[in-house]
Fold this sequence. Notes:
The chain is built from eight helices and no strands. About 75% of the residues lie in helices and about 0% in strands. It folds into two domains: about 30 residues; about 180 residues, Up-down Bundle (Four Helix Bundle (Hemerythrin (Met), subunit A)), CATH 1.20.120. The chain has about 210 residues and is mostly helical. The longest helix is centred in the middle third of the chain and has 31 residues. The structure holds fe (ii) ion (2 copies). One fe (ii) ion (FE2) binds next to helix 4 and helix 5. One fe (ii) ion binds next to helix 4 and helix 5.
Amino acid sequence: MASKRTPRTTSVRRKAHATKRSPARAARTARRADVLAILKDDHDRVKKLFRRFERMKDGNAQMSQLVEQACRELEIHAMLEEEIFYPRIRERMKESELLEEAEVEHESAKHLIQQLKRLDADDPKYAATFSVLAEYVQHHVREEENEIFPRVRRARMDLVAMGEELQARRKELLESGEFAATGMPGGMERESIPRRDRDATHYRDVARH
Length: 209
Ligand SMILES: [Fe+2]
Ligand SMILES: [Fe+2]
């Protein structure tokens, strides 16, 4: 008897299930376009490349490919922050010295990237320079995520609109061909990206535009 369901019961259950699911979907949609989530996604992707680099032995033929990918990712990310994120939040942040510091750190990272572009992959300084860049960027990312992002979140800005603006600019940069050597964001080979990352927000959003 308990197994028999009336159509009414079924429809009520379906409705309850749909109601339960939709707020989560709405939250996922909101998170997708939130500028802080997008920037964090970028950070996580580069940190994964740093970890892969740490596991590599000297003389690994794929090292220069990985270094180039990371540098492209970082150049695009820095450009998006400097053109869109930092100027928008500067208006609302009381502690502007945090942004000054962040911009100085970007300059130092870009300087190391330029040095890497001039070095041959078999130069003993190549891996050392990338290691310094990785340390530098990880410090910078920690400050952004721990110091800047929480303040931006509290400033009650339209982070979704900012996220959309940032992704539109990213698309423009990638389509310009200046960065996307392989046609993937940041010049990444699609198959070299783990499936979980391939399905990540960033790639879906870029593809959708
Ligand atoms: Fe930054
Ligand atoms: Fe960042």
